[in-house]
Amino acid sequence: MKILISNISDKPLYQQIKDQIIDAILKGEISEGDPLPSIRNFANDLKVSVLTIRRVYDELEKEGFITSQVGIGTFVSTGNLELIRDSKRRLVEKIMQDLIQTAKTLKITKEELNAMMNILYEEDGQ
Length: 126
What we know:
Elements: H1 13-26, E1 35-36, H2 39-46, H3 50-62, E2 66-69, E3 73-76, H4 81-105, H5 110-124
Antiparallel strand pairs: 1-3, 2-3
């Protein structure tokens, strides 16, 4: 799992790290039961405070993405996976609703909008 943090992002460091861990879980880059680095090692690797990583791990645990076992380590738990996928779908639906409203205002037909979506989706390559 590769975490990239930016000092110029509007998002706080802990949020950048947390979001990337969640994305890695959702994409299957890390699986249920996989260990996460210790707080100290992770902080050293990313050159951030151990308090930042502690906050990330605490929030991920509260949200059901990881479990911590004292003396053993911190592990991925995908118990909350379907709930997160659903919330991401709702976010995309909201953006699509705004997009559709804008298209209607600009008199762009559903067919034109679908054609644009298909072209852009295919060009992205993901």
